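new request in #modeling-help
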Amino acid sequence: MPPALATLGLAKRYGTIEALRGVALEVEEGELVGLLGPNGAGKSTLVKIAVGLVHASGGEATVCGAPAGSRSARASLGYLAELFRFPGWYSADEVLRLHQRLAGSAGGEAERTELLGLVGLSEARGRKVDAMSKGMQQRLGIAQALVGSPRLLLLDEPTSALDPAGRRTVRRLLEELRARGVAVLLNSHLLSEVELVCDRVAILSRGSVVAAGTPAELSRARGVEVATAAGLREFPDATRDDAPRIVADLVAAGERIYEVRVRQTTLEETYLKAVGEEAT
Amino acid sequence: MTGLGVVAAYALRESLRRRVFAIVLVLTAAFLGLYALGTQRAFEEVAQFDSDPVFEAVDERTIAGATLLGLAMFGTLFLGAVLAVFLTHAVVRGDAERGLLQPLVVRPVGRTTLLGARFLAAGVVCALYAAGLFAATAGITYWAGGWWPDRFWLPAAELAAAVVVICMLSLLGSVFLSATANGIAIFMLVGAGIVGGLLGQIGDALDSETLVGVARNASWALPFEALYQDALHSISSKSFGLTGEILQLGPFGGAQRAGGTLAPWVAGYVALAGGIAALAFARKDL
């Protein structure tokens, strides 16, 4: 089965500005991939090429094996734009009904009920968009993206307008979708959010992928510190697995141990190092 | 329902919900009320000319009826243009800038279908509006003075076609221009068409071939004006002699018969503009 999303040598040029420079990225079925990067790194451009809103200048992008932007590719995906709006006079239910018709979904009322429940908008089914808070509109946007049971979901800053409770709802939703086998590309500024839910992370800077891996791989070990009666002892090359042996050796040597600390590079530190001065 | 039908129904609903539609309806009601009042008074005045020997050579009731209805047709074209522009001026770039377009475009409907559906919805609303308003003003003219245009269906269809042309120009402009810029640009084009018609009138009065030629080219370059002029001509196409001459010099663009090439020209013009819009939209990054 082809990957839900695959890009190879993907490039985009806006006049003299190179927004993407040969990006290679894959999102497998049921995988949740986080896309990180500072403003202008090319994250939204990458997502927009995948959904067919922007045309690539070079390279290729496929969605479930079909060229990005094709009718078949668009039929396989759901998308929440960073900046979006629904007509104010539509109710939540009507927005979903419209998108069911556009997506050719046969889910009917049952699907709309399920989606509104998933995003916590069951009580607001008949409420007009104009009467919704920004956070409610964003949750409706996520429900809209899920219409037609897409195989790939592309979310561009889906939690930017949400309060902590709303963010937790979205995190749970993403975990639920992963369990159902839906592939998700999550474009976010919130490192903690990405670290919590994503299987893999790709960091973009100046249009290129500068770091990629699982959150654990990117948050790599940076040594072990042991507080002894003689003072702080540092083992810069040691990992978490080395800690018991280090402690045993020190005790055997007659040291008194007060504290053991495994030092790790956080995703934030890796991110800042990867994007360099751009992030400052 | 097909993608075209879904988007057209969406656009139709959007059209009817827009505040501008309510404003146009209020303006229309005010226009019709004033027109009824003015027409009734005008025909009362004209009735007093019957005994005046100065007016023996002309059919003053026809002059009054055709002039008044011509004025109403100008108002119809203007109000139709307002409606057409406001329903289409933001279809692509304006809606994209507001974030309304993206959720629709990523659905498996197709950009050309989306654009076609928006044109269909706006075109139907505007065409029905223009034809309906023409029918209402013709009815008022008949009620007030017992005068009925020489031809009814042709000018009704031509006014409807004229606002459809404006719809298409506005839709084309929306691919390239922001909503405000496009609205201004289309109103300037409508103004240019009217000025072209007035130039033609002046050219006729001064017997200037150059001015008449410029006006004719302008009206064919902006065919809503040629349609309007032909519609104006057709309401009194059976008038002749001094009455016919006076009517040809009538207000707001002289009545000019366009001939049989106008309909295919308009169809080709709209198709070409639609083709350019579809091509540009298909290549546009949103």
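bot summary: Chain A has a mean pLDDT of 89.
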